[in-house]
Amino acid sequence: MKSQYIRLVGSEQIKPKIIEMFNDVEYYVDMTTCLYPKFYNDNAVRNALENCIKRVVKFRLLIDGRVDIENLKKEVSWIFDLNKKFPLYIAVAKKPVKHVIVADDKYVRLEESHSITEEVENIKNVLIKNPPWYIVEAAKELFEEYWRSSMVIK
Amino acid sequence: MIEEYTSILTFSTVGFVLFSIIIIVVQFSIHLTKRDIVKYIEETGISERRLFSALFLLKISRRSMFFIIISLLYVFASITSLIGILNLKNKFFIILSDEAIITCSLYLSLAPTVAFAGVLMVCVFASFMEARILNNTLNWLRER
């Protein structure tokens, strides 16, 4: 299948594509993120993410080391409260990480480097649908490196 | 006439061997190029040009269908050239002594060689273009 490279700027452009991705995934998601509350508490995003976690075989969520985890647990508590019967694994990185999503070998999302306080409105993203195998492998390799050196909390 | 058949055979063989070497070398370098992409995503200092080379090599290495087509064309060109040479030397097939049929068999061996060069060019060009699209997309993400 032909690869599609979609350039997105700001949350309004990213939101529908991320929702579409979460709705489409069936097997696994590996995701590094800040879990920006304003974005993930949006009803549509929240529903899609929640359903995705309940549906997939494995969902690994790696939180950026720059984030105040105790504060985040309050702001997006619904993620941390998801029942243990769902295959959700949450870890906190010990250092800043690049924000990457790999899902089902069908999607790779790369986000530009940004400071933790930067507004989501200005952040650039690339969503690759049906990415070439080596982009999937590279993104997975990067995620595994981060995951190995992180601290699993759930 | 024998010179023509021999040069077709030589051209096909040289092209086939070169292409095989490229494929083998590229397969060995895949791990390195994959690391380059990881480094680029992580922004740990590899250049745009190096990223492009990595993408281009990876793209070209996955064109196994082209490799199969080229191999088949090579086999066809070799067989028809050899038949042509054998026939001209030993009058192997009496029927081929007719001038029109000799010309026909020459074109039969020439056609796969031309197609071979065409497929090779398409393979390189397609890999180049696809690598460029991906390279530009990744660079856009890095631009401030």
Descriptive overview:
The complex is a heterodimer of chains A (154) and B (144). With 154 residues, chain A is of the alpha+beta class. Chain A has helices at 11-24, 37-40, 43-55, 69-75, 77-80, 133-148, and strands at 4-9, 28-33, 58-63, 88-92, 100-103, 107-111, 124-129, 151-152. Chain A has one domain (4-152): Endonuclease, Chain A, CATH 3.30.870.10. An eight-stranded mixed sheet of chain A has the order 1-7-6-5-2-3-4-8, with helices on both faces. In chain A, strand 5 and strand 6 form a beta hairpin. In chain A, helix 1 runs parallel beside helix 3. Chain A starts with a strand and ends with a strand. The N and C termini of chain B lie far apart (63 Å). Chain B is elongated, with a radius of gyration of 21 Å. Chain B has helices at residues 2-42, 48-61, 64-90, 99-142. Chain B is mainly α. The longest helix of chain B has 44 residues, at 99-142. Chain B has one domain (2-142). Chain A binds chain B through residues 3, 5, 7, 98, 100, 110-113, 124-126, 128, 132-135, 137-139, 141-142, 145, and chain B through 30, 33-34, 37-38, 41-43, 58-59, 62, 130, 133-134, 137-138, 140-142.
Briefly say what this structure is:
The complex is a heterodimer of chains A (154) and B (144). Helix content of chain A is 38%, strand content 26%.
